[in-house]
C-alpha cells in the first residue's frame, strides 16, 4: 500500500533532517558551467565530472568557444566520461544554439532550456533550481529508488510520476533542499545494494519489506 500524502511528507521531512547541509556535488561558478556539468553527469559520477571540468571550462570559457570548436576538439577534454562522443556533439551544438538563439546566455525558461541539444527535463530542472533559484525538482536514479522503496509511488512509476508525487506534498520552497537531501540519502543509506534504511527507526514504519533488515 502506498503512503498517504501526510506519511510521504513525514518521511521526506525525516530524510531532510538527516542531511540538513546537503548541497550540490558538482563544481561550477556560473550558470553556463552548471549547465555543462549537469549535461556531462549523465552515465558518469559527479566526482569524475569534477575531475574534467576545470580544464574544459578553461579551454571553453564561453558558449562562443564551444560553438567554434568541433566535437573532435572537445572530446579529449571529456574522454574519461561515459558517452563522451555524444556529449562532445551536444556541447558543440548547445554552444551554437546559445549564440544563435539566446545571445550567448543560458535561458531561464524550461521550454528554452529543453530545446538545447543534450538537455532534458532533469538537466533543465537542475539549472532552473540551482542556476536561477526557480522552483523546480529534478529526479535522478537515487530519488526514484527512494520513492519506490519507501512507497511514495508505485513500483512501476515513471520519473515524471515521482516528480509529481514529491512536489505535490512538499512546498516549492523546500524542493531544492529536498532534492539534495534525497540524493545524499540515496548515496549513503538507501543505496541500490545493501540499503541501511533499517538503521533509522523513524523511517521503519514506512519501509518496504525488501529494504528491512534481513535477520
TrEMBL record:
PROSITE patterns: ENDONUCLEASE_III_2. Coiled coil: none annotated. GO terms for biological process: base-excision repair, AP site formation. Its EC number is 4.2.99.18. It comes from the Bacteria. Its cofactor is [4Fe-4S] cluster. Keywords: 4Fe-4S, DNA damage, DNA repair, DNA-binding, Endonuclease, Glycosidase, Hydrolase, Iron, Iron-sulfur, Lyase, Metal-binding, Nuclease. Binds 1 [4Fe-4S] cluster. It is an enzyme of class 4 (lyase). The keyword DNA-binding applies. It catalyses: 2'-deoxyribonucleotide-(2'-deoxyribose 5'-phosphate)-2'-deoxyribonucleotide-DNA = a 3'-end 2'-deoxyribonucleotide-(2,3-dehydro-2,3-deoxyribose 5'-phosphate)-DNA + a 5'-end 5'-phospho-2'-deoxyribonucleoside-DNA + H(+). InterPro entries: DNA_glycosylase (IPR011257), Endonuclease-III-like_CS2 (IPR004036), HhH-GPD_domain (IPR003265), HhH_base_excis_C (IPR023170), HhH_motif (IPR000445), Nth (IPR005759). Belongs to the Nth/MutY family. DNA repair enzyme that has both DNA N-glycosylase activity and AP-lyase activity. The DNA N-glycosylase activity releases various damaged pyrimidines from DNA by cleaving the N-glycosidic bond, leaving an AP (apurinic/apyrimidinic) site. The AP-lyase activity cleaves the phosphodiester bond 3' to the AP site by a beta-elimination, leaving a 3'-terminal unsaturated sugar and a product with a terminal 5'-phosphate. This is Endonuclease III. The gene is nth.
Amino acid at each position: 500500500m502506498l503512503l498517504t500524502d501526510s506519511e510521504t511528507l513525514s518521511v521526506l521531512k525525516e530524510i531532510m533532517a538527516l542531511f540538513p547541509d546537503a548541497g550540490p556535488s558538482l563544481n561550477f561558478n556560473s550558470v553556463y558551467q552548471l549547465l555543462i556539468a549537469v549535461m556531462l553527469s549523465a552515465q558518469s559520477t559527479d566526482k569524475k565530472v569534477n575531475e574534467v571540468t576545470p580544464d574544459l571550462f578553461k579551454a571553453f570559457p564561453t558558449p562562443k568557444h564551444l560553438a567554434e570548436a568541433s566535437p573532435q576538439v572537445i572530446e579529449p577534454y571529456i574522454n574519461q566520461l561515459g558517452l563522451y562522443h555524444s556529449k562532445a556533439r551536444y556541447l558543440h551544438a548547445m554552444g551554437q544554439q546559445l549564440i544563435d538563439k539566446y545571445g550567448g546566455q543560458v535561458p531561464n525558461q524550461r521550454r528554452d532550456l529543453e530545446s538545447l541539444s543534450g538537455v532534458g527535463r532533469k538537466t533543465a530542472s537542475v539549472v532552473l533550481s540551482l542556476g536561477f533559484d526557480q522552483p523546480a525538482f529534478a529526479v535522478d536514479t537515487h530519488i526514484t529508488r527512494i520513492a519506490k522503496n519507501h512507497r511514495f509511488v508505485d513500483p512501476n512509476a515513471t520519473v515524471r510520476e515521482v516528480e509529481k508525487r514529491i512536489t505535490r506534498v512538499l512546498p516549492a520552497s523546500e524542493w531544492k533542499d529536498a532534492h539534495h537531501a534525497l540524493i545524499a540519502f540515496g548515496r549513503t543509506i538507501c543505496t541500490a545494494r545493501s540499503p541501511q534504511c533499517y538503521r533509522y527507526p523513524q523511517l521503519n514504519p514506512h519501509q518496504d519489506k525488501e529494504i528491512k533488515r534481513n535477520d
